[in-house]
């Protein structure tokens, strides 16, 4: 193989490796963007869950207070 042919072959391999590297970088950016979106969704779901848990806790406290009041009233009439 002549020096020129060897040089061209080497250049072609470098170009191919550069293209592969650029494709990997692009894919990594896509994956990172998707991951960030998923993290935002998870954060929103956690917030929604916390809100619903708070609502359930409040409803349970109100229910227990109402039951306690009913029991006190019942005990007064015994």
Query: Helical element count?
Result: 1
The structure class reads mainly alpha
Low-confidence stretches: none
Order of helices and strands: H
Morphology call: rod-shaped
Question: Distance between the terminal alpha carbons, to the nearest Å?
Answer: 110 Å
Percentage of residues in helical conformation: over 70%
Strand content: under 5%
Radius of gyration: 33 Å
Q: What is the mean pLDDT?
A: 96
Largest sheet: none
The total strand number stands at 0
In short:
It is built from one helix and no strands. The mean pLDDT is 96.
Topology readout:
Blueprint: H1 3-76
Descriptive account of the structure:
By secondary structure, the protein is mainly alpha-helical. The chain has one helix at residues 3-76. The longest helix has 74 residues, at 3-76. The radius of gyration is 33 Å and the shape is rod-shaped. The mean pLDDT is 96. Residues 14-62 form a coiled coil. Keywords: Coiled coil.
List keywords for this structure.
78 residues; mainly alpha; 95% helix; rod-shaped
């Amino acid at each position: 193989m002549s020096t020129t042919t060897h040089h061209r072959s080497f250049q072609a391999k470098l170009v191919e490796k550069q293209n592969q590297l650029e494709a990997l970088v692009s894919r990594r950016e896509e994956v990172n963007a998707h991951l960030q979106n998923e993290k935002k969704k998870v954060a929103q779901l956690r917030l929604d869950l916390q809100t619903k848990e708070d609502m359930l806790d409040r409803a349970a406290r109100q229910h227990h207070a109402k039951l306690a009041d009913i029991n006190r009233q019942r005990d007064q009439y015994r």
